[in-house]
Amino acid sequence: MMLTDPSQKYRPFPQVDLPNRQWPSAVITSPPRWLSTDMRDGNQSLIDPMNAEKKRRFFDLLIKVGVKEIEVGFPSAGATEFDFISGLVRDGAIPDDVFPQVLTQAREDLIATTFESLRGAKKAIVHVYNAVSPAWRNIVFQMDRAQIKDIAINAAKLLRDNAAKQPDTDWHFEYSPETFSTAELDFSLECCEAVMEILQPTPERPLILNLPATVEAATANIYADQIEWMCRNISKRDSVVISLHTHNDRGTGVAAAELGLMAGADRVEGCLFGNGERTGNCDLVTVALNMYTQGINPGLDFSDIDEVIQTVEYCNQLPVHQRHPYAGELVFTAFSGSHQDAIKKGFAAQETRNDQIWDVPYLPIDPKDLGRDYEAVIRVNSQSGKGGVAWVLQQDKGLKLPKRMQADFSRVVQGLADQTSRELNASDIWTAFEDHYRLSGDQAYRLIDYNETGHAGDRIFTGKIAHKGGERSISGRGNGLISSVLAALRDDLGVDLEVADYSEHAIGAGTDVAAAAYVECRTPDGRTIFGIGTDTDIATASVQAVLSAANSVAAA
């Protein structure tokens, strides 16, 4: 049961003493180095860890996306991990521009096994860690600061010495003061400096210092303060790469990583779609595409986001949520009427722009940049408005309904959605459209053939109409085609209509172009009736539109 006074149990996280902090006014202008830990941190969090086939499939995906640093596993964890990693090296599966990275605890036997798994690699990163925060020191290890620092120092010496035994490999090192975000900053700095003293990094061969939020315990701005404090106080700043490894316990793993970059970090570790222990790691996809929407090329290619999703879901046996940023099935979909109307107008405005700048309401990124289309951007249910219905018809059938006709048909769709209590797909909407405007099924008046004669201002319509099981010949005179059709309907069939508005447009382009015509009519008793016709010939489409309205009158 939740406490009425949680301060009896929980303490607020302490602030960082950082006068004149600079990160709040910083702007991210270039991508970081990216490290995928899907195959290590992500894999260890799975109910059923990946087998060798799935790990290889995931590895190939990361290469295709463009990740250049990949934590391929924890080789000392067991034979499966060791064999997979050594197999990548043996098979020549690692591209020359990609760094494989492996993780090890700070123990002599485990470090030796780790180096052995990479024997023959052209280059590699060995990542060693030890936890430094008070909870781990006091509860888990029951060690003081000096003893914890000695672990880090001994691990650094082992990295140095094991690397010397394999001089043909281009070795790089990463050290993590694990649980950094809940540790004292001065002690984290002390451990990092001790490791640097052993490994002697240079600007040409920097040491990666990974500063993890192993458990996210504070707001993202505090993590940014911690990162800026370390960047200010570390010696030889030009000889270290500050790396971020955020978790999502408070739901702000992405925000913490972004603020950490603003605070001066150089590198981001995480997983595709945020897989990882507990609530997950930083989501590399979201961070990268957030940059992309700010005009920055992130260096990672998600042009086929659905292929990435399919591979990740297969390998992890976990679904990507429908609302996951950029990737979920519904993230580019609007059901709300006002949202749909704004999106529809945004797309229309986009077509008239003189530049390529993307500016569509509710869509921070063009779905086509990620390999998605626009068909699912607007979907229809009981919350939808006329704009959404019109959008579906435009995308599915190429019809651009006039505004008042949109309103007329939206009432039909609203009634159907209320009746069915479910989302309506394009087929549902088209069936309702055909039925409402009498384009199929029982029709009182169906055009068989027609002829138009006369001259400008005096036109004669002569046509054959299927009516009541037979054919009727009708004719009428008017100042144009539509008025002559209306005269024929009135004089020969007793259907009295007056056209209040007419519009038309092409459907498609090139040699397969068709036409759509719309009429808004008034009856003698003041009712408004709409009609639509489509044909490869615009004149025939106009006649069909008038007959559509006449059929609605007959069915009333």
From TrEMBL:
Pathway assigned to this chain's UniProt record: Amino-acid biosynthesis; L-leucine biosynthesis; L-leucine from 3-methyl-2-oxobutanoate: step 1/4
Protein name, per record: 2-isopropylmalate synthase
Keywords: Acyltransferase, Amino-acid biosynthesis, Branched-chain amino acid biosynthesis, Cytoplasm, Leucine biosynthesis, Magnesium, Metal-binding, Transferase
PANTHER family: 2-ISOPROPYLMALATE SYNTHASE, PTHR46911
Cofactor(s) listed in the protein's UniProt record: Mg(2+)
Binding sites annotated in the UniProt record for Mg(2+): 41, 245, 247, 281
GO molecular function: 2-isopropylmalate synthase activity; acetyl-CoA C-acetyltransferase activity; magnesium ion binding
Presence of the UniProt keyword Acyltransferase in the record: yes
Protein family per UniProt: Belongs to the alpha-IPM synthase/homocitrate synthase family. LeuA type 2 subfamily.
Annotated ranges, domain Pyruvate carboxyltransferase: 32-306
Job of this protein: Catalyzes the condensation of the acetyl group of acetyl-CoA with 3-methyl-2-oxobutanoate (2-ketoisovalerate) to form 3-carboxy-3-hydroxy-4-methylpentanoate (2-isopropylmalate).
